[in-house]
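Can't attach files on this board, so I'm pasting raw text. These are the components:
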Amino acid sequence: MSFPWAKNYEPQQPLMKWLDEKLPLPRLVYNAIGAGYPVPRNLNYFWNFGVLAGVALVIQIVTGIVLAMHYAANAGVAFNSVEHIMRDVNAGWFIRYAHMNGASMFFIVVYLHIFRGLYYGSYKAPREMVWLLGVVIFLLMMATAFMGYVLPWGQMSFWGAQVITGFFSAIPVVGDPIRVWLLGGFAPDNAALNRFFSLHYLLPFVIAGVIILHIWALHIPGSSNPTGIEVKDEQDTVPFHPYYTAKDGFGVGVFLLIFVALTFFSPNLLGHPDNYIQANPLSTPAHIVPEWYFWPFYAILRAFTFNFLWIDAKLWGVIAMFAAIALLFFLPWLDSSPVKSSNYRPLYRIFFWILMADIVLLAVCGMKPAEQPWVIFSQIGAAYYFAHFLIILPIVSRIERPLPMPNSITEAVLAKHADTSSAATA
Amino acid sequence: MASETDTTAGIEDGVRRRDFINIAAVSFAGVGAAAVVLPLVNQMNPSADVLALSSTEIDISAIQSGQAIKTSWRKQPVFVRNLTPVEIAEAKKVPLGDLRDPQTIDERTKPGKENWLITLGVCTHLGCVPLGAAEGENRGDFGGYFCPCHGSHYDTAARIRKGPAPKNLVVPPYEFNSDTVVTIG
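---
Top answer:
Structure tokens for the assembled complex are below.
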């Protein structure tokens, strides 16, 4: 894979030689995340988030498997089994809080990973497949997180399941039968809880599989870098190990500090108190809100309050919400600029930050109740979100005049180094 | 010799025996796979015990005029409301052209029992339980039901008047067994 100067795996001990001949697994690891994978020498800390997402997935799988040993997926006892984990199971409170906040941490690092890709143009050729697989992982994560949130069978769990499966009833003609089929009943109940548990256990392993494809696709062209210039020769790269294992190790340390601070000092900061009330199918909480990582999409869902053309408001909302994610699949072809990094794209860079502000605005709207002025803000925010990808981006990529670019990664690094050293002397 | 003639004859019309065998084998396997998918998909549908809850009997004798109760059918909330003559008159006053989902109150109640409005308590937007069945709850701008999740207002015949919901509250199938007992489902 990747570059001709990549180091070759040469086992020294007889045992490793024997193993390499029979099953070259150490060779695979060496070439994937060891000294055999040459990486651009100029990666900044935004390149940590892929590894951090992997760490977060492992934390979720480990804590999740342990929780499944104590949890009971039955609508009659699910809520109490979670309380049993919290009160009676040895260290159960810790494992559950780690799983709960681990989900939030997973989304934080994945969002930063996605924004890194947007800023530095990581989705562009020759890495389109890496991006497409990433969007698939993101969708799988959203499905997994939603189904996991239903399992404690609290009020937010139940009404979240009711509202989200309600999306499917917006489909004309077949919508209601599909919803009943998905739930295995006419409202969320035992059948739905059981199948959500089954899928919630399965999907993380599917995610792990798609991550392997994501890394495989990445290692064909090799990692991108902050200049967006492709690697030209050996001096542009350093081996992944020890250079980036060390840099990622530092990132993992910072990640874990924030994670344990959240888990130990304010484990319920990102949750909703209503979910500590057992599910009641006859009473909806006054203010239903999804978890924070769904807020922007929830705001887009609710932005349609009027019928338009021959499609009613409800279906428009659902279409818009799914389209907001599906749009990302087309991003590599919507942005036709050959320059990857925003460091050399003065115009795109401005719109990138406006998009970030727009996503924050949508998140705030998604958190607030569906009242003015939040309805109008979410309408403006949703319109801008689609305009960014469908109108602004194609135009900017055609009219923009990029800044002069260095010839190679090494030249960029040396120029930067010269700048800082002359500044230091001055 | 016979086989030689067969081969040449086959090639002339462009189809070999092997093509036939390939298509037949793959088709047969495909039909088999489809037959296996069927139960795997069908197991997701409501099971017999869920469907067995399909009818519920309710006693409506205690509901005074202007009051409503909340009960449950197929695990979904049901509102049974004893409309006052004023509420019925209000519902009749509305021209059908003003309605998003045009239905008269007569179409939504049983003949001779038009004071009994029986609907699901499931907002047709995304499925929250609207307020307005219990004493003192917000009944919205039209005096019927109000869904707090996304702000849908229903009138005294539980028809959608304002907000994102596309349809009126659903009237489930029901029968009057007597003047005081109703079977839903």
